[in-house]
Amino acid sequence: MNINDNKHNGGYKNKKAVVLFSGGLDSTTTLKIAIDEGFEPVPVTFFYNQRHETEIEHAKNIINFFGLKKHIIVNLDFSGIKGSALIDKNIKVPKNRIKAERTSDNIEKNDIPATYVPARNTIFLSYALAAAEVEKASDIFIGANYIDYSGYPDCRPEYLASFENMANLATKAGVTGEISFKINAPLLRLTKKDIILKAVEIGAPLNLTHSCYDPIEGLACGVCDSCILRKRGFEEAGINDPTQYFNRRH
Q: Where does the chain bind Zn(2+) (predicted)?
């Protein structure tokens, strides 16, 4: 099965699409792509006790920017599970970890970072699938990327293809043939530079996005994996990064 990395499941009367939306650079670009492809997006954002919960406010601001009517915010209590630097403050967020270019080919199994949240994308996509079945939306969009990825196993194309297969086996709409669910990952094979260039081209509001895993005094730390990948992407794209970084002030 080939995951839809550059096309959607066309031909359906209902043009709704569920979009996993964090308020970050990748998901904002993905949301704008869905809008430009003619979908009425149903963005789904998660509060899961994450260290960087400020992303929720960024997500709300971006929803307002686009003037969208619907925005689902799901509250998940990950505090009892922990197992990640993003939800357990006793685990430090790795800093200055990314030196050279990192891809799925050169990241070892034991190099999955402490910011990996156990089964997060599976849980998020499951909620998105439930929403899609209720909304009768055949398409689910996710801003997953594995070219410049940080080592997350649930951002790989084979994972997304497997989830798409499961979605059509595990839902009433799927098994009855009412809906053929498709997972759309339009950024999957783009570098961060290419994502930023695409975002600028289509008018995604990058100035409203948030990427940092470990904000300090309301500012991006500048040295976590996510900040480094973002900064490197803007530099390679030759575009000014609108993010305010804590380490630039100190």
A: 212, 221, 224, 227
Positions at the binding site for ATP: 21-31
pTM: 0.89
Structure tokens given for 134: 């209720």
Q: How far is CA 231 from CA 169, 184, 225, in A?
A: 40, 26, 10
Q: For residue 82, what are the β-bridge partners?
A: none
147 domain residue, yes or no? yes
Expressed in angstroms, the distance from the first to the final Cα of the chain is 49
* CATH code of 215's domain: 3.40.50.620
pLDDT in tens, 204-229: 999 999 999 999 988 999 999 899 99
Q: Does some domain include residue 4? A: no
Q: Which residues are documented as binding site for Zn(2+)? A: 212, 221, 224, 227
In the chain, the number of structural domains is 1
Q: List all residues 6 or more positions away from 40 whose beta carbon is below 8 Å from its beta carbon.
A: 15, 16, 17
Binding residue positions:
21-31, 212, 221, 224, 227
* Residue 10 belongs to some domain of the structure: no
The 10 Å Cβ neighbour count of residue 140 is 28
